[in-house]
Design brief:
- By secondary structure, the chain is mostly helical.
- Among the domains are: 116 residues, Serine Threonine Protein Phosphatase 5, Tetratricopeptide repeat (Alpha Horseshoe), CATH 1.25.40; 79 residues, Serine Threonine Protein Phosphatase 5, Tetratricopeptide repeat; 105 residues, no CATH class.
- Helix content is 64%, strand content 3%.
- It is built from 40 helices and six strands.
- The protein has a six-stranded mixed beta sheet, with helices on one face.
- A hairpin with a 4-residue loop joins strand 1 and strand 2.
- Helix 1 packs antiparallel against helix 2, helix 9 runs parallel beside helix 11 and helix 27 runs parallel beside helix 29.
- The longest helix has 15 residues.
- 41% of the residues are buried.
- The protein binds one DNA strand through helix 3, helix 5, helix 7, helix 9 and helix 11.
Length: 795
DNA sequence: TTAGGGTTAG
């Protein structure tokens, strides 16, 4: 016996095995049908081999089994059309070869011509309906079975279960199962499979267990199904038990079972177990290799995936297929290996694997992760056969690359078509709402999500939480978090980050303690949230403590994001030397975002030399981070170095990056009001300016960076229009003060960082008006109250 | 002549 790596010596729970008590259950006997019961005059016996009809029959049988249906049809045309057997043969031929529509049409013609269908006919016909996903016709066929007296036939019922499983009509499948006289192994397997089809993995396992309890001995297909269910439940204990079962009933060297086991262990993130199974396979076919490549991709070992490809290519008996490439593409994305990715794309074309919806979606996905959205779009646009997953992948590609408007446009297009969004669609599109939508729109999409019943899904809830926090409603985000039935690590990371971006670092820390006390293990993203919280709230000592604890207590190596947070934290203290040496001592290559953080710190401290250094580095790195360029451009503008400003503008233009037109929005009960700098077109602008004047007078003339700079006369007019008194955020705040309920905070969102002057102004306004003013920029929310800001004047 | 088949995009 092959020892499958000795993986299942111990199992504490015997969920599946307990009922069987070591004695293999008796295999349910297939009830052999009495041949006479359904015989009818059209059936010809094989005995009359001398007749020409029989010779033709023989020829038809041979032709159909050879798969050339065109030839078969011409033979069929020459024959008498009164023989049910011949019709069955033809229908089977079409079904087996995937010509489901032909099969169904032939059946309908058969009925039209009055030829009686029998218990052989229906399994083929039902399979064709299933293949076509034609549930109207499927139900009609089901209806006619009662009249034919075939509704209790074992094979027909099993086919019905299979068909309803394909439709996802699980209730109908259950009904057929419950009403059939004697379900057999196939019936049970079909039920387990039906639940797999609708992704109800837990229920599927429950059926498997019930089957064992009913004394049905599983065959290899039962185990393959059960393993698939286990692989989705992320609970390898059950998987190991099925593994033991496989050993017990002697399937340990069946390559299909082994491949299923490999996949199950891989999906349970037990890569070494998967490898041991793979090593124990004596004859590895391409499917096993593909599964192993998929396992390496899933478990973050892209190099190993490519090594496996080498091995496949070396072996003459193995041929790369489309699944090989599909499984390999995520590894290219992980490695950032654009060239290899494109090579695989080329290979797919050369090998005529395209068009292929799964492969094309995998390519789209990869290009999205590379950030090469043009190629992702081309792939999407060229696809003949787009399914929901394709749409989801394109939406996710846009969102991951911050192309939110495009994402929303595509989402709308999806809604107007025949495809219905699923939880993945929703979880993918919500970040776009988080970035662009008003609170009212957020509530609308939230309502829509509730109507679809998707709000119970943890992924979706997490995204809703993030959306509300990003749009300024932290309280609602918190309520959603508290109301969640099932919180995962992402839920905790999200709520910690929510308080972080609102400058309430103490709350983040409190939530982190709560999370630990509930026994939830933090991961690297938890620390990104936590360190952001410390940085945004100026909790310098706490930040360092968590940074050290992350490595020492949790064994998590800091990634570039963590270094970024720490750099913001150091920058806040104004110790620029420490900031610079922190970058120099980092084991990772600094990104534009890292230098941007130093640039920001230098600018805040007024250290032009260091700012210049950071700027040079930002420009020398290839990146598409619009924010970094804008930061740089603003800094030069403040210093009056217009030639540098123009230079950056030209770089951005060359890269196709658009400078976002600064704008601020404020929401009233009825609509969203949008302001740009020096905008006078708004209905209430006269009133707004009046308020602005009152406030300006009240404030005296605060610090104004621009006033200290000498402008060229030609630029003076432009600069004046752009002077801080006219900045959109002030217009929005003033409008908010006069158009929202007294006592409510004024919530303003803007697409660029608030300037120093406006920050001073907002503090004053909050003091004078005695109202809380919340200004959200792409990174943080400033909560202004009684003349103070939650950011501690560093952002 | 009849049912179920391992790897496949997020």
């Amino acid at each position: 016996m092959v020892n499958m790596g000795g993986l299942c010596h111990h199992h504490h729970h015997t969920i599946f095995l307990s009922s069987t008590n070591n004695t293999p259950p008796i295999h349910h006997k297939r009830s052999k049908k009495p041949t006479t019961a359904f015989a009818h005059p059209h059936n010809h016996s094989r005995a009359s081999s001398s007749s020409s009809l029989s010779r033709l029959s023989r020829a038809l049988v041979d032709t159909v089994s050879s798969g050339s249906m065109q030839h078969a049809h011409s033979l069929f045309d020459k024959m008498s059309h009164s023989n049910t057997f011949h019709w069955n043969l033809m229908i089977r031929g079409y079904t087996d070869n995937g010509f489901f529509l032909h099969a169904l049409n032939l059946y309908l013609t058969m009925r039209f011509q009055g030829v009686p269908a029998d218990h052989f006919t229906y399994p083929f016909v039902l399979k064709a309906c299933g293949g076509l996903l034609d549930f109207r016709e499927g139900e009609k066929v089901h209806g006619s079975l009662f009249k034919m007296g075939l509704a209790e036939d074992l094979y027909v019922c099993n086919s019905l279960i299979g068909m309803y499983g394909k439709f996802g009509h699980i209730d109908s499948a259950v009904k057929v199962f419950e009403e059939m006289p004697l379900p057999d192994l196939v019936s049970w397997n079909s039920m387990v499979g039906a639940y797999l089809m609708v992704q109800q993995y837990f229920t599927s396992l429950k059926w498997f267990r019930t089957m064992l309890q009913a004394g049905i001995c599983p065959n290899k297909f039962s185990l393959i199904n059960a393993l698939e269910a286990c692989s989705h439940c992320f609970y390898n204990l059950w998987g190991r038990e099925v593994h033991c079962y496989a050993l017990k009933i002697g399937f340990e060297s069946d390559v299909m079972i082994q491949t299923s086991l490999l996949d199950m262990y891989s999906k349970c993130r037990l890569l070494s177990y998967a490898e041991r199974i793979f090593d124990s396979i004596s004859s590895r076919n391409i499917v096993a290799w593909n599964a192993m490549i998929g396992a390496y991709a899933l478990n973050g070992q892209p190099i190993q995936a490519f090594d496996s490809l080498e091995n496949i290519l070396k072996d003459d008996k193995l041929a790369v297929d489309n699944v090989t490439l599909i499984n390999l593409l995520p590894s290219c994305a992980q490695l950032g290996a654009v060239l290899q990715g494109k090579t695989i794309h080329g290979l797919a074309i050369r090998k005529s694997f395209l068009p292929h919806p799964v492969l094309e979606t995998a390519l789209l996905d990869m290009y999205g992760e590379f950030g090469i959205l043009k190629l992702a779009e081309v792939t999407f646009d060229q696809m003949m056969d787009k399914n929901l997953i394709t749409w989801n992948a394109m939406i996710a590609a846009y969102v991951q690359n911050d192309w939110y408007r495009k994402a929303l446009k595509l989402f709308e297009e999806l809604l107007s078509g025949y495809l219905k969004p699923d939880t993945v669609t929703i979880a993918s599109i919500l970040p776009a709402y988080a970035n662009l939508a008003s609170l009212r729109e957020c509530r609308q999409i939230h309502g829509y999500i509730m109507k679809l019943n998707f709000h119970l899904n943890t992924f979706v809830s997490n995204s809703i939480m993030y959306m509300y926090a990003s749009c300024g409603d932290l309280a609602l985000a918190c309520r959603i978090f508290r109301g969640m039935a099932c919180r995962d690590i992402i839920s905790w990371n999200t709520i910690i980050m929510a308080y972080a971006i609102h400058g309430m670092g103490r709350m983040s820390i409190e939530l982190f303690s709560e999370m630990k006390s509930r026994g939830i293990e933090p991961n690297d993203s938890t620390f990104v949230s936590l360190l952001s919280a410390c940085s945004n709230s100026g909790l310098v000592n706490e930040g360092w403590a968590y940074y050290n604890s992350m490595k020492l207590d949790y064994g998590i190596e800091p990634k570039i994001e963590h270094y970024g947070c720490m750099l913001d934290l150091i920058g806040r203290t104004g110790n620029l030397d420490q900031a610079l040496s922190f970058i120099e001592e980092m084991p990772l290559l600094p990104t534009a975002r890292i230098w941007g953080s130093l640039l920001n710190a230098s600018r805040n401290k007024g250290n032009i030399e260091l700012a210049e250094l950071a700027a040079e580095r930002i420009l020398s790195i290839k990146h598409d981070n619009t924010g970094c360029y804008i930061l740089l451009s603003n800094m030069y503008a403040e210093a009056g170095r217009w030639e540098k400003v123009e230079h950056i503008k030209s770089i951005m233009k060359k890269k196709g990056l658009e400078k976002t037109l600064p704008c601020s929005t404020v929401e009233t009960k009825f609509r969203l009001h949008r302001f740009t700098n020096k905008q006078r077109s708004h209905d209430e602008s006269a009133m707004v300016y009046e308020i602005l004047d009152i406030i300006s007078r009240n404030m005296g003339h605060g610090k104004c960076i621009h006033s200290a700079t000498k402008f060229k006369p030609s630029e003076l007019a432009r600069k004046k229009a752009n002077s801080p008194e006219n900045h959109s955020v002030r217009l929005a705040i003033c409008f908010g003060l006069i158009s929202t309920k007294l006592g409510d905070p004024v919530l303003v969102r803007k697409n660029t960082r608030i300037c120093e002057d406006c920050h001073v102004a907002a503090k004053r306004i909050s003091h004078i008006s005695k109202r809380e003013i919340i200004v959200g920029d792409p990174k943080v929310f400033h909560h202004f109250r009684d003349g103070y800001c939650s950011c501690g004047d560093y952002w």
